[in-house]
Amino acid sequence: MSSVSQNFMKLFRGSSGPETIAEQGSQKLSRRSSGLGELSRTWESAEALCVLDLGSTSATNIRHFTERGHRIYSEDLLTASTDPGLLATDENGVAALDSRKFLADNLVYPAAHFDVVLCWNLPDYLDESLVKPVVGRLWSVLKPGGMLLAFFHTRDAGPDSPCHRFHIIGADTLEMKRIVLRQEARRPPTGAARGVTSTSDGFQLQRVFNNRHIENLFRDFASIKFFLARDNIREVLVVR
Amino acid sequence: MSAATPAPTSGLAQIGKSVFVKGELSGSEDLYVDGQVEGSIALKANSLTVGPNGQVKASVEAKGVIVLGKLEGNIQASERVELRKSAIVTGDITTQRISIEEGAYLKGKVDVHRADVK
Q1: Closest chain A C-alpha to B76 CA, distance in angstroms
Q2: Distances (CA, A) of A45 to A38, A41, A42, A73, A94
Q3: Buried-state track B46-61, b at ≥16 Cβ within 10 A, e below 16
Q4: A44 or B8: whose pLDDT is higher?
Q5: CA-CA distance, B21 to A60, in Å (whole number)?
Q6: A198: which DSSP letter?
Q7: Mean of the pLDDT values across residues A186-211?
Q8: pLDDT in tens, B56-102
Q9: Distance CA A48, CA A59 (A)
């Protein structure tokens, strides 16, 4: 794995557009995304890319990529992390999710398979015990030079920031809709003890990464770019 | 049953929710599965509907596939796949058209082949 310390490229870019309410009643929001705008140049110019969407299943995203001749894989990792079979306790007797079992059942792809991974806000809402193992697996399934887009809340977003599904509706525009969990998935995986994993009807923010945390999380990647948005979101585009 | 949930109509082959079938299923009429099926389903010129109680663990080849329940296996549909909001699908989908309601769960690859323009 290449070390990010040698060729770390951190660029702070201009802010994304402000969040605008499109349909108040159904809690649909749209936002400009600089990270998506940069990433979309890849799939507009390249052919037959292999894309992994880790957000909630989105017909809009599937259509977006298949219409351009790309292959898309959909895998909703947050929902998968609510599997009761993952519950375990660590050596200190603290409730945790079994990351080995999780990775045996999820993200099972050949090495260097994907050109693009759409992580969305997964790291902010995923259980602590799964975050690093998942990022490690994503490194291995990305092709060298492949790109990953992730969103991170800033502290100003507050602890009750709702988790959204993301639909690509333009080259740099996303539609966001609050995720409401299926009845059977409404359980806190390890949050019963800590009280922070999920709310009664949706996922809850697990933590706030600062820039240093994000750099460490993606330290095995070749480069990382930050895009600061005005809606308390930090967009991160990393290249393997 | 609500308007959004396709009810089996008369003349439609049905597998009720208390029925468990293991093996190869093939036929030349539409099939509604609300029970459990394990194996493979081949309805090349017809459609398969997996009802809300249906649990299918099979590779599926059909003209159209509508899923309201659980389906584990690859789907090959010559025309259309519909995943309703209660659908839980694990497997790769190959089809000409696909519609997915918000709330449906899909884990797998989607390959959309356009119909040849003549």
Answers
A1: 16
A2: 12, 6, 5, 20, 48
A3: bbbbbbeebbbebbbb
A4: A44
A5: 35
A6: B
A7: 62
A8: 999 999 999 999 999 999 999 999 999 999 999 999 999 999 999 98
A9: 19
Nearest CA in chain B to A177: B102
> 3-state SS of B51-84?
CCCCEEEEEEEEEEEEECCEEECCEEEEEEEEEC
DSSP-based helix, strand, coil % in chain B, nearest 5:
0, 60, 40
Q: Do B99 and A59 touch (CB under 8 A)?
A: yes
**Amino acid identity for residue A206 in this structure:** Q
8 Å CB contact of B106 and A76: yes
CATH code of residue A120: 3.40.50
SS3 A10: strand
Angle at A76 between CA A71 and CA A82, to 5 degrees: 160
Which ipTM did the prediction report?
Answer: 0.82
Q: Which chain B residue is nearest to residue A108, measuring alpha carbons?
A: B108
**Cα A181 from Cα A183, distance rounded (Å):** 6
Angle value at C-alpha A39, between A33 and A45, nearest 5 degrees: 130
pLDDT at B95: 95
Cα(A74)–Cα(B107) distance, integer angstroms: 5
Query: Hey, are the CB atoms on A80 and B100 less than 8 Å from each other?
Result: no
Pick from A148, A122, A95, A83: nearest CA to A203 = A122
Structure tokens at A63: 């259509």
Using the structure block, give the residue that is written with the tokens 């990775």: A103
Q: How far is CA A226 from the centre of its chain?
A: 15
Output the six-digit token pair for B37.
């099926």
Expressed as residue numbers, the domain containing A226 is 4-239
Verify whether the Cβ–Cβ distance A66 to B112 is below 8 Å: yes
